[in-house]
User: Fold this.
Amino acid sequence: MRSVPHFINGTEVSAPGELPVYNPATGEVTARVPLPSTTVVDDTVAAARAAWAQWRHSTLSQRTNILFSLRQLLVEHTDELAALITSEHGKTLADAKGEIARGLENVEFACGLTEHLKGGFSSQVADGVDVHSFREPLGVVAAITPFNFPIMVPLWMSANALATGNVVILKPSERDPSVSVRLAQLLVEAGLPPGVFNVLQGNAATVNQLLEHRDVDAVSFVGSTPVARHVYERATQHDKRVQALGGAKNHMVVLPDADLDIAADAAINAGYGAAGERCMAISVVVAVGDIADELVSRIAERVDRLTVGPGDDPASDFGPVITDEHRQRVLRYVTQPDPGVRVVRDGTALTARPGFFVGPCLLDGVVPGMRAYDDEIFGPVLSVSRVATYADAVALINANPYGNGTAIFTRDGNAARLFSRQVSVGMIGVNVPIPVPVSSYSFGGWKNSLFGHSHIYGPEGIAFYSRAKVVTTRWPLASESQIDLGFPRTR
Ligand code: NAD
Assistant:
């Protein structure tokens, strides 16, 4: 049985595998992940710290060259990387390539680092005095990532962290860890010095050691809300700079004036794509007014046309969920529905196949207080909530403890504008169901979808991974020297 290696100080480090990695399309164990001892974690942090001593002084053009090369390598190896992702995550190859393309955007953004790291200069703020500012790296960044985007989320973090002169220790999800090792190899091929990007396999214990480690300076986390909260609290207690992105419950509001075919297509794409295992997946369609019956019927028609199968079969619209345990949890929302819920489509028949498949499920009449509404299901289960008015839809969204993404479908520009101002949500789509910002903006939710103040990637990513210095300069002539104990004034 293959054991997935760590990647420490520029080389693969083998260790006996412990946790199983599945091919979710077959249910077979294909590899095992090692759990590093505390000594291995300490040694990795020490190697990263040592590498930082030089990397922090690398020139901006050296870093830019490496990032450009990485971009080229990611393009050249897209098919291979996508196949690796599909074999451990289960998503379709097309979806895996989409994830790589969105990760690539972050490398492209980071390639503009000379612009992003440009400081300010103010001449003559007082007589003979100038001020300039610049940003410096933090040091060792621990990047802790979820299973659902095994290359995109590591690139959200590492592209900007490396560009700003930090070293990275990536702790990938133990469920689909192999592609992170391939990323590390490509970074070395791109010219990154040993120790600047490391992959430490492991689980919660590995994460906890990093959160408390004296030589880790910052933590970027993406995962579920309970773990994000824990990571934020534990790491800030240990004086780290932390951003911890959590789970989601994304609502898509359909106003009565919307084109219902466009809305139904969007609900299908965003509800069932990647088997619903996206943090920006639509989980609840909020039907406003008297369109609900017609909307549910158009969504159901489209559900019947979906093909669920292995991710490497081009005919599959979506693949399996990540583990059997997760599948059992997802199925309960349909096999034991909350009282009052109408199960419009039941995808449980697919469970007879090998692998961790769940067919598309559609629930109607879902309201707050029901498990199907309150929980982040993270599977191919789309719920419909019916409300009377636009104001009810906004109130529903704002009362929800999550605030990652939301969307509105309408032909009324003013309603859309008001919606984007009135919802307590970080990312909003207008007739766009999955509004993941392009890499020149930053990504982040509100409320329980993000702990810390900094969104990830884009300009906020650059700010998160660097800190400012401001230098005030005067070159006095000897004749200007004087003793003056007053507080320095500019006027
Ligand atoms: P998870 O929280 O179980 O795991 C994420 C990471 O944390 C993994 O590396 C894991 O090893 C580690 N971990 C797990 N339990 C831990 C613990 N008790 N202490 C310390 N570390 C621990 O998440 P997942 O199941 O891999 O991913 C799915 C979740 O991630 C969903 O909730 C989804 O919404 C969320 N997600 C959010 C975003 C976002 O941008 N907000 C993006 C992708 C995924």
User: Anything to note?
Assistant: The pocket of nicotinamide-adenine-dinucleotide is lined by residues 144-149, 153, 171, 173-174, 203-204, 207-208, 222-224, 227, 230, 245-248, 279, 376, 378, 404, 445, 449 (CB under 6 Å).
